[in-house]
Structure formats: structure tokens, C-alpha cells
Amino acid sequence: MDASKVNVAIRRLLILIEIVLCMLLIVSCSAGQPDSKATATAQSLAKGTALYGQYCMSCHGGSTGGSLTDIPPPHNANGHTWHHPDQQLKDIILNGLDLSTDSQKMPAFKDKLSNSDVLNILEYIKTWWTPEQRQFQAAATKQITDYENGK
Ligand code: HEC
User: Quick check: helix, strand or coil at residue 84?
Assistant: First the structure.
């Protein structure tokens, strides 16, 4: 083997080593990420479940039952909660709602729940919706977010 062929062989070997190192790096980075994200989601969902049971369940009910015209409205797939973007739901939960035609009103929770508590509760409620309802509501939320960001 002459010198130039040895050079090419060494270069190929170096490139191969680089590729293997890159792959190891990608694998080790992505190995940590889904794990920590999954844990955060499981934790926030558990928190949302507990808070919903403590503060909301008695009036709004759980994952099944109820109908579109009920007051208080069910938050599951039978209700209309999924018609509203996150921003509006958050506002109603923190500040309450009193459409004066109804005898009952939605209490304000701003003294009891933080922003992240409300997001955790919403995350839990969303597990009751159909994929189509989730998609619709996510699109509505994005529209408001884009509007607020001046897009
Ligand atoms: C004392 C009963 C009561 C409790 C407790 C209560 N709500 Fe309500 N909620 C209502 C009533 C009644 C309405 C409808 C108000 C109206 O139409 O004027 C309502 C309306 C809502 C709405 C707007 C309608 C919809 O489905 O989009 C949301 C969102 C909501 N509540 C979320 C919550 C969450 C989350 C909790 C727990 C943190 C909670 N509520 C606790 C009685 C309650």
C-alpha cells in the first residue's frame, strides 16, 4: 500500500470515528430528555388531578356524564369547556363567572390557585376530551397566543 492510500484509509477511519461520536452524543442527549419531560408531565398531571378533586369535582363532576346544557357545565367531552381557548378558561377559573341568567355562579379561585395550578388542572381536564376536541382547542389557544404576540 502506498502512502496516499494509507492517508485515505486514515481519513476514512477518522470520519467513521466522528460519526460514531456524533451518534453517541445524540443518543445520550435525547436519552435524558424524554425521561425528564415525562416525569414533569406525570407530576403536573398528578397535581392537576388532586386539585380538581379538591376544588372542582363537587360542582362540575368527573370524566363522564352530564350534558351540554347542564349548569354547572361538565368539563368532560360532553360539555363545552373544549370550545374555549386556554386564556379564557384560565381567566374564568381565576376570576369566576356570573352569567346573571343562571342562579349559580362560578367562584373565583385567584386566592386559592396559582397560574401553574390552573395549568395543571387544565392539563388534567384535557385528558377527558377526544383527540378532535383537543386539536380544536389547541388551535383556538394558538390563535389567541399569536394574536397576543402580534403575529
Ligand atoms: C360552587 C360550584 C363550583 C365550583 C366549586 C367550581 N365551579 Fe366552575 N362553574 C360553576 C358554575 C355554576 C359555572 C357556570 C357559570 C355561569 O354560567 O354563569 C361554572 C363555569 C366554569 C367554567 C366555564 C364554563 C366552561 O366549561 O368552560 C369553567 C372553565 C370552570 N367553571 C372551571 C372550574 C374549575 C377548574 C374549578 C375548580 C378549580 C371550578 N370550576 C369550580 C360552578 C363551580
Answer: coil
Which residues of the chain, if any, have pLDDT below 70?
Answer: 1-40, 102
- What residue spans define the domains of the chain? 3-148
| 3-148: CATH class | mainly alpha
Q: 0.90 cut: is pTM over it?
A: no
One DSSP character per residue, 30-65 reads: HHHHHHHHHHHHHHHHHHHHHHHHHHTHHHH--SS-
Question: What residue's CA is closest to ligand 1, atom 29?
Answer: 89
DSSP 108: P
Rounded distance from Cα 11 to ligand 1 centre (Å): 68
> How many residues comprise the chain?
151
